[in-house]
């Protein structure tokens, strides 16, 4: 009897604002370009320099809603009460079927929605939480970015407290104390799941 070929599991990456998820992911991709990172769809307009299919899949709202109704997204959300965002399901399934290491970087709410939908779809998922060394260090990084007003920083830090409290919901926690080390730990998780050791 032939055993079904083992497919890798989807790696869902979450963590609080300013923890450095994108930085860790970039360091990982620099060393392991064979990893595929899911590209989200959105109904918002492209920002200067953004490319369709690279940064996001940009689409009109009516197309997005039609695809959502047809079950073509792994998860969707409305952000800031305006634009729709979603993870196209088909590319995720195709990459998993070809045993390509597949990452979905998403916020806490999105990860929870993936958890619900993955059960329906029979998708195998590993949930990875990127954590800061401490809340004070997270605050230092957020303020150090200089990209938000003090009011926005305060709001993001309140959200971060909620996100940090959700850490026990995840399969693996990686503390982003040092980017290259965190990227190595993330690779170790992926390599184990995909039999790449």
What would you say this structure looks like, in words?
With 197 residues, the chain is an alpha/beta fold. The chain contains 7 helices and 9 strands; from the N terminus they run βαβββαββαβαβααβα. The protein has helices at 21-31, 61-69, 89-97, 108-121, 135-145, 150-165, 179-193, and strands at residues 10-14, 36-37, 41-42, 57-58, 73-79, 83-88, 102-105, 125-131, 172-175. The protein has a 5-stranded parallel β-sheet, with helices on both faces. The protein has a 4-stranded mixed β-sheet with strand order 4-3-6-5. Helix 1 (21-31) packs across helix 7 (179-193) and helix 5 (135-145) runs antiparallel to helix 6. The chain starts with 9 loop residues before the first strand and ends with a helix. Belongs to the guanylate kinase family. GO terms for molecular function: ATP binding; GMP kinase activity. Keywords: ATP-binding, Cytoplasm, Kinase, Nucleotide-binding, Transferase. Its EC number is 2.7.4.8.
Number of strands: 9
Order of helices and strands: EHEEEHEEHEHEHHEH
Structural class: alpha/beta
Task: State the name of the first-level CATH class.
Answer: Alpha Beta
CATH architecture annotation name: 3-Layer(aba) Sandwich
Level of helix content?
A: 40-55%
Poorly predicted sequence stretches spanning 5 or more consecutive residues? 1-5
What's the structural domain tally? 1
- Compute the separation of the termini in Å: 27 Å
Number of helices: 7
Morphology call: globular
The CATH topology is given as Rossmann fold
User: Major β-sheet, in short?
Assistant: 5 strands, parallel
Q: Which range does the strand content fall in?
A: 15-25%
Largest sheet: spatial strand order? 2-7-1-8-9
Q: What's the rounded overall pLDDT mean?
A: 92
Rounded Rg: 17 Å
């Amino acid at each position: 009897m032939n055993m079904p070929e083992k497919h890798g599991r989807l790696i869902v990456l979450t963590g609080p604002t300013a923890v450095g998820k994108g930085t860790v992911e970039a360091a990982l991709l620099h060393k392991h370009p064979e990893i595929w990172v899911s590209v989200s769809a959105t109904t918002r307009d492209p920002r200067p320099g953004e490319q369709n299919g690279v940064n996001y899949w940009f689409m009109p709202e009516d197309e997005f809603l039609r695809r959502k109704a047809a079950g073509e997204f792994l998860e969707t959300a409305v952000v800031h009460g305006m634009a729709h965002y979603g993870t196209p399901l088909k590319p995720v399934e195709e990459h998993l079927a070809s045993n390509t290491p597949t990452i979905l970087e998403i916020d806490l709410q999105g990860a929870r929605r993936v958890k619900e939908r993955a059960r329906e779809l029979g998708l195998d998922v590993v949930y990875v939480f990127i954590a800061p060394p401490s809340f004070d260090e997270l605050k230092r990084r957020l303020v150090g970015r200089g990209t938000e007003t003090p009011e926005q920083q305060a709001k993001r830090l309140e959200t971060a407290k909620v996100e940090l409290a959700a850490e026990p919901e995840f399969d693996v926690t990686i503390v982003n104390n040092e980017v290259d080390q965190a990227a190595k730990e993330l690779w170790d998780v992926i390599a184990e799941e995909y039999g790449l050791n």
